Amino acid sequence: MDVEDANTLVIAYGSVARSAKEAVKYLRSHRRKVGFFRPITIWPFPEEELAQLIHKVDRVFVVEMNQGQLIDEVRKVECYHKKIYGINRYDGEMITPSQIISKIREAR
Q1: In the prediction, which pLDDT does 80 show?
Q2: Which CATH number do you get for residue 92?
Q3: Does any domain span residue 2?
Q4: Helices (H), 16-61
Q5: Does residue 1 fall inside a structural domain?
Q6: CB of 7 closer than 8 Å to CB of 57
Q7: Cα–Cα distance, 95 to 76 (Å, whole number)
Q8: CA-CA distance, 74 to 62, in Å (whole number)?
Q9: pTM of whole model > 0.90?
């Protein structure tokens, strides 16, 4: 998915990446400049690749099916210079694309 023109980046790993990808596709179809990054592994963490992408955007959303462990790794890469938002769920239910879309639209 294209991130060259993105001003917002969505990061997701594992099963929730499917919901995140659908949300990004929807937002892009509605002319929102949103990119998507799905790390293949989280160890070793893809710091260099992610740093290059984060450098190009204004804000980052990390979608996780836990309480925020991945967002901590993203913050280490970015050193807190960008707006980084967590979209989390840890009740056993999957995060839906519509929930991701709502959180992105709410954030300013």
Answers
A1: 63
A2: 3.40.50.920
A3: no
A4: 16-29, 47-55
A5: no
A6: yes
A7: 24
A8: 8
A9: yes
**For position 3, what pLDDT does the model report?**
82
Counting Cα atoms < 13 Å in the Cβ hemisphere of 97 gives: 9
CA distance 6 to 99: 20
Number of folded domains in the chain?
A: 1
Q: Is residue 17 part of a domain?
A: yes
On whether residue 54 sits in a domain, the answer given is yes
pLDDT at residue number 65: 96
Point out the residues of the chain with pLDDT beneath 50.
none
Digit-coded pLDDT (tens) for 50-64 = 999 999 999 999 999
Distance of CA 39 to the CA centre of its chain: 10
Residue 22, judged by CB atoms within 10 A of its CB (0-12, 13-18, 19+), counts as: middle
- Say how far apart CA 10 and CA 57 lie, in whole Å: 10
Q: Domain range spanning residue 37?
A: 8-106
